[in-house]
Amino acid sequence: MKVCLLNDSFAPVIDGVVNVVMNYAEHLIRDHGAEVxxxxxxxxxxxxxxxxxxxxxxxxxDTTAFASGYRAGNPFSSEAAAELAAFAxxxxxxxxxxxxxxxxxxxxxxxxxxxxxxYHTKFDIDIERVVKSKLAVKAGIHAMVSNIEAxxxxxxxxxxxxxxLKALGFQGEYRVMNxxxxxxxxxxxxxxxxxxxxxxxxxxxxxxxxxxxxxxxYKGLPLxxxxxxxxxxxxxxxxxxxxxxxxxxxxxxxxxxxxxxxxRCFFTGPIYDREALRAWNTRADLFLFPSTFDTNGLVVRExxxxxxxxxxxxxxxxxxxxxxxxxGFTIQESSEAMAALLQTACRDLDHLRGVGxxxxxxxxxxxxxxxxxxxxxxxxxxxxxxxGLLQKKKLPADxxxxxxxxTLEERERHRQIRREIFRDFRETAVGMMENIQDAGESVESFxxxxxxxIHEKIDSHKRG
Length: 464
Known about the structure:
Elements: E1 2-6, H1 16-32, E2 35-41, E3 54-58, E4 60-61, E5 72-73, H2 78-86, E6 91-94, H3 99-111, E7 115-119, H4 123-130, H5 134-149, E8 153-156, H6 159-167, E9 175-176, H7 190-197, E10 208-212, H8 221-233, E11 239-243, H9 249-258, E12 265-269, H10 274-283, E13 286-289, H11 298-305, E14 310-313, E15 329-331, H12 335-346, H13 349-362, H14 367-386, H15 397-409, H16 415-430, H17 432-439, H18 443-463
Parallel strand pairs: 1-2, 1-6, 2-3, 6-7, 7-8, 8-9, 10-11, 10-13, 11-12, 13-14, 14-15
Antiparallel strand pairs: 4-5
Helix pairs in contact: 1-14, 3-15, 4-5, 7-10, 8-12, 11-13, 15-18, 16-18
């Protein structure tokens, strides 16, 4: 089977979704003999020559200043699209509903390969963070939901994630496909733990709490610090380790200092070495993850693989599969609830270790098993296609994708046409939100109008 994986980020930027894509590629090749190609926006200086699969970087724009270090890709990159199409994929699997999905839809027009989409993160929150206009936010969410509805099979990483997608207006069906963990079950070597934690003030017998993830306030970081302040005021000693980077890291360090917690809270920055992360999960006594943003909380399963139990918000996606007091802990979303649980936990560290062992035994899924389930579903989708059972929803914007794919098929003869298509798209997209606001126009109507103009331009060139 030939599988094309698409995402809006890849190494050297490493996040949860990039980790998913890398594990999919590795296990599809190693466990199933599949051929894999990856399409992603280009990052300056990135070298993909050492990967056991082809990585096709396409043109990108520098949006790192306001997009948390991420670049925006140009999905109409004809050279990259032609190279991905020449791979002749059987399955297109997109892990982001933005430019990766547009590229996937263009490739489907050219290759007729079905599109699978996995909903990993609540993209609406990130859109609201970057875009200030409510109208623009609404239009952006609508455009991404339309992208998702154009797919042949939609996967979510938890039941709560599926309901979140429905709440954004998604009208289709979805299936839950759980992500795996690349940590082996068991604690890290004591020597590695000592090496990684050297230089940090971590006295024996003093409880150590851990957070791993993007340093964003919507992951519950202020709640953690407020709870730790209450714990400190109650006379309980502890240490808190924050692993990760993000736009809110500096403000959280400042908040810790203002609360008088600077000597007990350590901000390590990002750690990409997986064995070093295992070491921190091994050294900690409790993992704190009060996020209602995350759709799955892969870091919770990684902690569990090391025998580390987590504190989660009751009803959150990350808390799915957690039984309070058995394989984890769930609380109400408040610093008071967190502080109360931590006070109790600090009195009985042996109990925490028992709950962590249950978490290791009950909630950890390996990437080998996760990708095997995905591979089996790929086969079912291809069989449904063969039997004519895939009923793709034809959206107005698909005409635009079809036109773009057509230009890719005759890339040399239509090189000038492609330049003009991209120029027109760029010029009109810049004023897209202004046009929508002035005319009260929907995103789909706008795309219809753009597609019609492009069609007329192509006809004109052909007649010429």
